[in-house]
């Protein structure tokens, strides 16, 4: 089915992204995977190409265009290229809205130009060793000391954790307030007492630096409070829909790309003297995946348009995230199976997609949390 949600401007942007991937990412990606981290030069190159801060006002060096379809194009093309390690979506679609939507004029002048140029790489630190989706379990504290916050605690599984120059930390500012006693505190590189642990060894997305962060009596200036004191819960709930949409967009793009790869493979690979595609079971597998992808694509494209228009709610974003990522997981498993032994070899794209994509149903809110959000909305 012909997609109808993009304009000529979006198509031109897609070509820009593909050129960037070809020149600045893919030639270096194997080395980044070995190193466990991408080059800072790649971030600077993305800034020069105008791929950072798409929705940031032009006065701060951004693109000045809040149309989510541009973010969707980025997510789709990076997914098809098999290059999730350079986490532009996290930077643009997850952290960007916090800085532009909650930042004071002074904070925007201080942080956004570097955000857009690639000189300032960002991360958000929410998850802790004992707290993931349950915000009430957060134990990191930020104590009001009059002229500064005193930050103590630890975070884990933090994407961009090694490279980040600016970390938005979710911390308790009113301990007795539970989830509604949390605030967003911005910690900058070099702050005394702010330490990074090891670059975590994951089963996939090897080039995406994911780290433990430690805060030991870190003195954070009072002007680094982002948004309202004790307002983090509302701030997080407001912005999580876009994060989940970005993950969902990558999910359906991955499933479609795996289907393309596998369709070509079964036409070329022979068994019992004829191509695999001549076997009824194989045709049924391809037919099922193609239909699931087509139906999911129709729903996701509607969600993309609605989100770009500002009308997508948290429930439908949760539906999109749950369905698209679970489809991605199923398609990756089935496509690997259809590749046989070759699918288990790391040099085959299907194997890498299998391990890289497994996190999709976990981060940004697990599938189980998505179902809970949807269920509560229907049965409240």
What does this entry look like structurally?
A four-stranded mixed sheet has the order 1-4-5-8, covered by helices on one side. A four-stranded antiparallel sheet has the order 2-3-7-6, with no helix packed on it. It has a two-stranded antiparallel ribbon with strand order 9-10. 50% of the residues lie in helices and 15% in strands. The two termini are 37 Å apart. The chain contains ten helices and ten strands. The protein is an alpha+beta fold.
Task: Give a short overview.
The protein is α+β, with helices and mostly antiparallel strands and 380 residues long. Helix content is 50%, strand content 15%.
State the shape: globular
Strand content: 15-25%
Q: What is the overall number of helices?
A: 10
The total count of strands amounts to: 10
Strand order of the largest sheet: 1-4-5-8
Helix and strand content put the structural class at alpha+beta
Low-confidence stretches: none
Task: Output the helix-strand order.
Answer: HHHHHEEEEEEEEHEEHHHH
CA-based gyration radius: 21 Å
Helix content: 40-55%
Q: Give the termini separation.
A: 37 Å
* Residue-averaged pLDDT: 96
Oligomer: single chain
Describe the main β-sheet briefly. 4 strands, mixed
């Amino acid at each position: 089915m012909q997609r109808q949600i993009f304009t000529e401007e979006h198509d031109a942007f897609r070509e820009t992204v593909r050129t960037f991937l070809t020149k600045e990412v893919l030639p270096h990606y194997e080395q980044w995977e070995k190193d466990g981290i991408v080059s800072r030069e790649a971030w600077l190159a993305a800034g020069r190409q105008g791929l950072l801060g798409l929705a940031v006002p032009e006065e701060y060096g951004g693109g000045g265009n809040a149309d989510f379809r541009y973010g969707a194009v980025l997510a789709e093309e990076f997914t098809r290229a098999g290059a999730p390690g350079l986490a532009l979506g996290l930077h643009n679609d997850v952290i960007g809205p916090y800085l532009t939507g909650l930042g004071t004029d002074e904070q925007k002048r201080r942080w956004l130009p570097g955000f857009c140029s690639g000189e300032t790489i960002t991360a958000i630190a929410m998850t802790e060793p004992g707290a993931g989706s349950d915000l009430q379990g957060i134990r990191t504290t930020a104590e009001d000391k009059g002229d500064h916050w005193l930050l103590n605690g630890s975070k884990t599984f933090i994407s961009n954790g090694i490279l980040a120059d600016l970390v938005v930390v979710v911390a308790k500012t009113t301990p007795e307030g539970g989830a509604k006693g949390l605030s967003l505190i911005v910690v900058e590189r070099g702050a005394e007492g702010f330490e990074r642990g090891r670059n975590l060894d994951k089963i996939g997305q090897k080039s995406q630096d994911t780290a433990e962060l430690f805060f030991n009596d870190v003195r954070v200036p009072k002007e680094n409070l982002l948004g309202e004191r004790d307002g983090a819960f509302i701030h997080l709930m407001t912005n999580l829909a876009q994060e989940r949409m970005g993950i969902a967009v990558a999910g359906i793009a991955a499933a479609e790309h795996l289907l393309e790869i596998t369709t070509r493979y079964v036409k070329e690979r022979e068994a019992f003297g004829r191509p695999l595609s001549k076997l009824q079971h194989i045709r049924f597998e391809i037919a099922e995946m193609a239909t699931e992808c087509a139906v999911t694509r129709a729903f996701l494209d509607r969600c993309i348009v609605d989100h770009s228009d500002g009308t997508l709610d948290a429930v439908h974003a949760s539906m999109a995230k749950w369905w698209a990522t679970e489809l991605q997981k199923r398609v990756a498993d089935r496509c690997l199976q259809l590749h046989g032994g070759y699918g288990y070899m790391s040099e085959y794209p299907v194997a890498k997609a299998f391990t890289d994509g497994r996190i999709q149903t976990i981060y940004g809110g697990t599938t189980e949390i998505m179902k809970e959000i949807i269920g509560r909305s229907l049965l409240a």
